[in-house]
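Q: I'm building a small set of examples for a reading group on sequence design. Run inverse folding on the following structure and report the sequence directly after it, with nothing in between.
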């Protein structure tokens, strides 16, 4: 075989090998709507005179706009995002709370900043309430005005309709953990309590398959899970961080943590049933790994999920939040 024929033979053989090899599939990243956190609604809420009469500024993730007055907020511009920023009206007293803010990154553009703080409400010696508030964002709606601190999850319509099967949640983040931090509990009633050890920031993605019974009760099985705690300050921004989504029952994984498990019924998130009533969504088990979800729950928070307790000053920033597919 001369050199020319040998070269043709090798080239043909090489091509057949390439044709027979599986082709690598390109990853696809889909930014969540308004997940670049460039657009914000600014609300100027006048608080009641009995507590000082100041105007409180509250922020929401939606098309740029300004709202004046103590108007109950509803998601604007098709935004799927809600925040823990809220207007409360308790016994005719209007109060605003804000722990989620737009912030500017060093490289330009805006990001979402969430911080755990103590919200104070004092009035003429009659009202003296301190409440620990963690900055949180989630997919869903917050029902305003809030009229009490009881059953906080009942004020949150958690989750949006969704049938996809992403392999990961991707985002940029930064964390600032105060030095020598502990945890403070204060619900506005009773004495404040302090516990040793810091709280964690948290980001989770949960896929559920939900259904409703004849009485309007909502149930769900867990289809997919991705959940991380963050407890150490970062050296600036961490870009393109990924939380993988694991499908089916994940309790046998070596990296499984108890807080990744099914949501306890006493801590169930709420959603609106077909009758328009807010009811708890009871997670009753793990679904099969190939099940098709009906809803997506996603949250980022400067706290790890327990109401009225947290590490004061713990701050989490996130940006460019979206879903990754094969």
């Amino acid at each position: 075989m001369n050199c020319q024929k040998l070269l043709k033979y090798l080239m043909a053989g090489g091509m057949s090998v390439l044709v027979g090899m599986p082709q690598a599939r390109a990853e696809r990243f889909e930014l969540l709507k308004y997940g670049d956190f460039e657009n914000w609604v600014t609300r100027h809420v006048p608080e009641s005179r009995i507590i000082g009469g100041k105007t409180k500024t509250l922020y929401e993730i939606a098309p740029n706009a300004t709202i004046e007055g103590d108007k109950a907020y509803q998601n604007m511009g098709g935004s799927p995002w809600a925040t823990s920023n809220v207007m409360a009206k308790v016994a005719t007293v209007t109060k605003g709370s804000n722990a989620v803010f737009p912030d500017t990154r060093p490289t330009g553009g805006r990001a979402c900043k969430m911080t755990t703080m103590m919200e104070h409400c004092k009035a003429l010696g009659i009202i003296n309430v301190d409440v620990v508030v963690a900055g949180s964002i989630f997919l869903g709606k917050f029902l305003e005005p809030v009229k009490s601190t009881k059953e906080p999850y009942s004020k949150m319509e958690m989750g949006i309709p969704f049938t996809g099967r992403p392999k990961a949640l991707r985002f940029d983040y930064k964390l600032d953990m105060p030095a020598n931090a502990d945890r403070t509990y204060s619900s506005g009633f009773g004495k404040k309590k302090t516990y040793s050890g810091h709280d964690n920031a948290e980001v989770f993605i949960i896929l559920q398959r939900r259904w409703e019974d004849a009485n309007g009760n909502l149930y769900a099985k867990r289809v997919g899970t991705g959940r991380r705690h963050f407890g150490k300050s970062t050296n600036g921004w961490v870009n393109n961080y990924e939380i993988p989504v694991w499908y089916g029952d994940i309790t046998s994984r070596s990296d499984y943590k108890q807080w990744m498990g099914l949501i306890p019924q006493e801590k169930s998130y709420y959603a609106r049933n077909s009758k328009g009533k807010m009811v708890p969504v009871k997670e009753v088990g793990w679904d099969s790994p190939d099940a098709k979800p009906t809803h997506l729950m996603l949250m980022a928070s400067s706290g790890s999920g327990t109401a009225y307790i947290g590490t004061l000053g713990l701050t989490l920033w996130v940006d460019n939040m979206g879903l990754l597919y094969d």
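Residues 27-325 form a domain with the Jelly Rolls fold (CATH 2.60.120.890).
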